Amino acid sequence: MVRLEPDELRPAEELELFIAGLGGEGAVVSFVGLARPADAAGGPVTGLFLDAYPGMTEKSLAAIAADAAARFPISEVHIVHRCGEVAPGAPIVFAAAAARHRRAAFEAADYLMDRLKTDAAFWKREQRLDGAAWIEPSDADRADRARWNKKCPE
Amino acid sequence: MKILFFGRLGETIGREIEHELPPQGCTVAELRAALAKTHGVLAAESVRACIDHEIAPETALVLPRHEVAFIPPLSGG
Prior knowledge:
Chain A is 34% helix and 34% strand. By secondary structure, chain A is α+β, with helices and mostly antiparallel strands. In chain A, strand 7 and strand 8 (131-135) form a beta hairpin.
């Protein structure tokens, strides 16, 4: 299940909802991303705006969830991503995977986040003290995503 | 037809503009060139066109029934 959330994201509720829908799995790994109060250079960020393209953005989230399900022996994926204005420190993304065994759930959650950081259809604008700036994935984000291009990530 | 813009393009151009498309359609490259006369920022190679929510090549045919958007590089989540 994937969802674009224009209002407050409540990670505990999302986790409960996800677990309530499961049957027979032995493991759930979830990740919560928070809006950082600082930019890449360490300067204060007073707010974050995530522009989304209704329809296309959900499709990009669904494609990432489907890729994870095809790649790892997991049974369910849950992604909720904020859009619109996000306050520093507020949850911006919830990503979870459920599986029979924990290893696949850990790896799938890691994979989901690396893909979301580069391939999710969002445009981010940081509000800084000296004005607003649109931002793109960092080299570190691209390197994290590229880890999964290798056939055997071991 | 409506042309949509997102990210910094949505900020500089506006969320959408109305554009008269030839009834037989035109390619993404032709549409981009026509729009870039007014909005030069659309000429940038990093700006991509989307047809019905999919990134489209410059040679793709745009028809009046399509939903068309121009987007800057993705920021990611």
